[in-house]
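Bug #77: duplicate submission created two jobs. Keeping one. Sequence:
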Amino acid sequence: MEPGCDEFLPPPECPVFEPSWAEFQDPLGYIAKIRPIAEKSGICKIRPPADWQPPFAVEVDNFRFTPRVQRLNELEAQTRVKLNYLDQIAKFWEIQGSSLKIPNVERKILDLYSLSKIVIEEGGYEAICKDRRWARVAQRLHYPPGKNIGSLLRSHYERIIYPYEMFQSGANHVPEPTEEDIEKHPELKKLQIYGPGPKMMGLGLMAKDKDKTVHKKVTCPPTVTVKDEQSGGGNVSSTLLKQHLSLEPCTKTTMQLRKNHSSAQFIDSYICQVCSRGDEDDKLLFCDGCDDNYHIFCLLPPLPEIPRGIWRCPKCILAECKQPPEAFGFEQATQEYSLQSFGEMADSFKSDYFNMPVHMVPTELVEKEFWRLVSSIEEDVTVEYGADIHSKEFGSGFPVSNSKQNLSPEEKEYATSGWNLNVMPVLDQSVLCHINADISGMKVPWLYVGMVFSAFCWHIEDHWSYSINYLHWGEPKTWYGVPSLAAEHLEEVMKMLTPELFDSQPDLLHQLVTLMNPNTLMSHGVPVVRTNQCAGEFVITFPRAYHSGFNQGYNFAEAVNFCTADWLPAGRQCIEHYRRLRRYCVFSHEELICKMAAFPETLDLNLAVAVHKEMFIMVQEERRLRKALLEKGVTEAEREAFELLPDDERQCIKCKTTCFLSALACYDCPDGLVCLSHINDLCKCSSSRQYLRYRYTLDELPTMLHKLKIRAESFDTWANKVRVALEVEDGRKRSFEELRALESEARERRFPNSELLQRLKNCLSEVEACIAQVLGLVSGQVARMDTPQLTLTELRVLLEQMGSLPCAMHQIGDVKDVLEQVEAYQAEAREALATLPSSPGLLRSLLERGQQLGVEVPEAHQLQQQVEQAQWLDEVKQALAPSAHRGSLVIMQGLLVMGAKIASSPSVDKARAELQELLTIAERWEEKAHFCLEARQKHPPATLEAIIRETENIPVHLPNIQALKEALTKAQAWIADVDEIQNGDHYPCLDDLEGLVAVGRDLPVGLEELRQLELQVLTAHSWREKASKTFLKKNSCYTLLEVLCPCADAGSDSTKRSRWMEKALGLYQCDTELLGLSAQDLRDPGSVIVAFKEGEQKEKEGILQLRRTNSAKPSPLAPSLMASSPTSICVCGQVPAGVGVLQCDLCQDWFHGQCVSVPHLLTSPKPSLTSSPLLAWWEWDTKFLCPLCMRSRRPRLETILALLVALQRLPVRLPEGEALQCLTERAIGWQDRARKALASEDVTALLRQLAELRQQLQAKPRPEEASVYTSATACDPIREGSGNNISKVQGLLENGDSVTSPENMAPGKGSDLELLSSLLPQLTGPVLELPEAIRAPLEELMMEGDLLEVTLDENHSIWQLLQAGQPPDLDRIRTLLELEKFEHQGSRTRSRALERRRRRQKVDQGRNVENLVQQELQSKRARSSGIMSQVGREEEHYQEKADRENMFLTPSTDHSPFLKGNQNSLQHKDSGSSAACPSLMPLLQLSYSDEQQL
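Kept job's structure:
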């Protein structure tokens, strides 16, 4: 058991360096700087500056590699020795026919190798048994005392190890054991050579004859097994030995008797190797390994019978056990990885192993676990390591400059950096740049992809070169290093502790396959350091510094070798070391030295010095060797260009070194050559047949050495020249050109950056600076003005400096001249300043002369102050002059700022105070003006006038005061406009008042008249809204003015229809086009009245023309239409045809019944208390006016009169009000003419006749009538003729059925529709006979009444009279019934849908709230898409029906007496308006209660 394996103690840390940016610019120079410190540890770590972060340049998608497989317990040297020992002993027992099982002691597997070594160290098995020292053996194996473990160890040793050790020593055993020895040591019987096997020659155990053979019952020897948990068998050295030792009977060992042969020649050849006889061949055993023969009775002890199975003789067993183990090496994995797949595998392995996330595993824990695993023979952990991946094939992690890739500026910077591992080996200071071949791993970087526990073993670099490793990314890499001074000590310790490995592999440490615990090395005196290399850090190993380590987890690193001048001696020693080990060289050291010596001028100076030393030693050694060759008698020689030969053709067959300067060859043995150090090992041919192959003669080598010396000593020659020049030792100052030539020589010859060179550069810099200053002084005025001026003191210092520099400058005379001019100017300026106040012109001229000198004179500064003060005072005086243009506040503030910068004086201070006071006052008034302009509470004009008056005397332009003046001017103009309007002949128009209100609101002035105007505008808008609600339909496309004015273009159907469509779509917005008036004309009441009268006439003429045109169109109800004849167009844009079309009673045009609002038979306007029976068809509401003719709600005349009363109270004129007055006058005029026509004798007779007919129809009994209604007498002749009884349907409506409620009217309405349909065949007519003399005036009155947008009772009376005088229009009645049935069905469907929805809502109250909300949303969408359009149309229908009911139910009022009695009682301010509408004057005196009815 190895001490200290369980508790790994980390070695001390190696040095860590953090270079500055300046130090980081020279990589090899910085490494040379830290070498004295870092070399003592063997390795060091360098942290680059934080900003140095090279991009990762590997093509991740294309990067694929095959890693190496590493079994951790095979890496450690001592563990591998133990595994090899177990392999040998297991093989020994396997040949014996047994399998090995290693026992456990104290719950740990027994270390058989350590037990064997300790027994040997303690004197051997016999000595320990004799002295009873097995307890000491247990103590050395670190077992606890007091448990009798020593006896247990003795038992295991006797059963497992002792037979093997005895067998191993048997071949050289001199004393022959006797039978007594065998009886005394029964363990020897376990070996086949002493048991059931042949007696070895010389042991003295041979049986003399077969009669003396001891016949004993022989059992198979015990079996020892080794179990391989990794592969189930195979290589014992890679097994996990965990089982206890157990002895088992051999069940597999069987032997077969050799078959007899009939040929006598074969029988004669079968001879026993013990007795040398060939008789009794039936008892002759045949060895399966070497074909030797043995009698079974010649064996000791003899065998009773031929054993079955494979049998081997003692010589074969010994040879098998003595066979050395195979050379150890890593095998390649079978799987190829990408970076991603390898990283996933590595992270998964680490997280599973430590049972925590990979980034949380401490590095100390991983380190201890690693060294525990490599020292354990029980646990076999296998990892994979992507090591030594060629960057030339897979791409470097650093950016590389080549023609294949376009690099960004940042990548180019890193591609040329000396710390780029592709660049560092070929830097000028590096030796490897002189090797042409791309040596992989040395000049070309290698890549390393690691995972946790993957390791690199103890090794030194090829040719003992430097190495540098950069960790691009990933988890840390743990390093261990040993300095070069302890390299041999480390080798000795490893050979001492594991001699078995070095016996079979002398160059084991060069194979990079062996680890040893740093604690073990430190315990034997080897100094070891450690470090954790994190991502972005460098680790450098120095020449012959052993290093090893392992990876903490998944990472990516890159490494390369490099060699500097200080490496050359170490490289030469390495070649001698390789010669002793007979190891191949990577390159020829002699060739490298000679190649550098051939071009000494290209070498760095330090490198040239080092190469000269190496070349000198090499030439001396070559002279000695060639002299020895000459003494041997070799006289033949020929030149050979060794650099052109492959390395394997110029290697010494003795020491394997690569020859370059010379080699010895033989004419008779052309296949080989030797170096001159092994001239006796070439061949045994005569010296005369041998000849020298050389690269250079002994005369050429000193020449090369001399050139190197010149290069190395050139620095000293140059340094002497520079020293003489800088210190002026010969009394002569050098010119600037001579000094520059010395500096150029140093650069061309690449001299090192020494202190002397730095002094020369500093001197040249000072000279250049002095020359530049002098040129600035003596050059032209422009150049001097552009350069900074020198002070007088600096000029004197410059003159002194030029005199002290070791350089002869002719410009020193120019500097002296300038100094004289400055001193003269200084005296003149002092005189001018002493006689103040001087004239400004004199001061200014002196100042300009001073500026031309190019030197700062103290007196010039004082002159500058005086000139600035005078200029500033002049500017202030001009700005404050009364006659001057007022400057702005910014100008005054700028003057004040300038005054603060100039030097102080009494006059300046006084002007500055006055200017400050003026600015303070101006800013205060500006603030007041700004407050007045921005404040919410506006100030009256008087306040603003006071502020403006106060600021008139301030000589500063104030923007806010100016804005206040402008606002006040606008306010005064506004007040004047208001006064002009208020004092005019007419009331002001609403548009004018609105414009004034808008202007007044924007003014920042408090205006008393504004509130009054706003109230008037608000009252006018309120009246307009009331009038709009009275006249306009819901969502009407007409404006109020359009409805009140006559339709002047009624005769053009296309124009009227297109305009109506534009209004419906919101495209038509002009109110005055119908009257042909402009906005200015609307302000003149007379123009409005004249235009209205003209519009009435045009409307009448137009409707007549339109009726004639539409009457000429074919009826849509006709069976066929002419293709060429003009047709009607409905408002929907389609041609009305077939059933369901209606003809307008005014324009005679046709429309779809479903596209327009149609009258309802069951909801016709209610007559008076005396209603006609149901068969009085002429009283049914079948009159239809299209939406183009009926543009408004047509309120009753009483409502319009109330609006006129409110209008007269307004002090504002509205175009709508004047249009309403004209409309009212037109309606009253028509009403008078209608009453006169109805009161004529002929019409009165016809009305009486209709009344009798109604009485007859009422007297006729009908079974379907539910009740009989009483009649009453009408209050006037018109009401008398309007009927006495109401129909059954009207009775139902009066009994409480709501027309607008589909739920209430639905039960009775269907039966009423059926009743009306059944009465259609009974309808007859005409019931009156109207003469043409009566019909024509009535029809003309009817047409004019339909043009009015006012509801009048006389219009309905004339309609009934005309209907009774013609046959009933059955087609229209049927169409109206069908439309009403269709509407009734839709109402019932909606009612049932609403009822079902209520029931579902009650049932679904317990369901989820979210489902209920979704159902409600769907229900709302259905209602909005399917029902809302129909409901909107019904609301419009019901509104029109309500209007009609209002029209017929309101009692008629006779206005004529009122008009006659009060015609001259009203006085109006607007005389023009009163003259135009005299008939309206009495109506405007209605009481205010009528107005409130609106």
